[in-house]
């Protein structure tokens, strides 16, 4: 995601941008944000087109209240800022999910055009990491997407450099109180995204968001 795309996508939530940019880690971007109008006037493409760190975009997305509709049955899929007709096959999706699954530039594009066409990453026999949580009294739960099959108990997932591995303990549903939460889980399952309890091997920690993992063995 480029710097100008971040500021454009979240122009309605400037306070969130200010909050994130105020952190020491991102103070470089605070100066750029404070001088944004001058950068635009001078068409300073070196700064405006700079690719920002994924972690910065994720922090801004996590504060956002923006919601979109993903019509996943369409080919290509349609991501819209408004509910389209009577079509019930949609996932109510937030910007953090869009960042991980489709890229940050899609957020800006959808805000600008009201809708855009998207396609999930082609992953073949691999596994895509959508989200990971460490839950008290439960352990590590990961939202993982597959294209060809569900993951089975005792299967081993490995990073492509073979330095990190995780064991599948089994499917695990995080309980949501709201109807919207339950609906989201069901619509994600239809897209191959399921929740699994996983066990890190050799203290490798969490798999990384957007990372592709390979299935080693049962």
% residues in beta strands: 25-35%
Mean pLDDT: 94
Residue windows where pLDDT falls under 50 for at least 5 positions: none
Helix content: 25-40%
Q: Which word captures the global form?
A: globular
Largest sheet: 6 strands, antiparallel, barrel
Derived structural class: alpha+beta
Q: Please provide the count of β strands.
A: 10
Secondary-structure element order, N to C = HHHHHHEEEHHEEEEEHEE
Counting DSSP H or I runs of 4 or more residues, the number of helices is 9
Head-to-tail CA distance between termini: 37 Å
Number of domains: 3
Q: Over all CA atoms, what is the radius of gyration?
A: 19 Å
The strands making up the biggest β-sheet line up spatially as 5-6-9-8-7-10
What is the element layout, followed by pairings?
Elements: H1 3-9, H2 14-21, H3 27-34, H4 36-41, H5 45-48, H6 54-63, E1 67-71, E2 77-80, E3 91-94, H7 95-102, H8 104-113, E4 115-118, E5 127-135, E6 139-145, E7 156-158, E8 165-171, H9 179-189, E9 193-201, E10 212-215
Antiparallel strand pairs: 1-2, 1-3, 2-4, 5-6, 5-10, 6-9, 7-8, 7-10, 8-9
Features:
33% helix, 6-stranded antiparallel barrel, alpha+beta, 218 residues, single chain, 3 domains, 4-stranded antiparallel beta sheet, 10 strands
Structure description:
This protein has a 6-stranded antiparallel β-barrel. Strands 3-1-2-4 form a 4-stranded antiparallel β-sheet. It folds into 3 domains: 3-63, no CATH class; 67-118, no CATH class; 127-215. The chain contains 9 helices and 10 strands. The mean pLDDT is 94. It is globular, with a radius of gyration of 19 Å. It is α+β, with helices and mostly antiparallel strands. Helix content is 33%, strand content 26%. The protein starts with a helix and ends with a strand. Helix 7 packs across helix 8 (104-113).
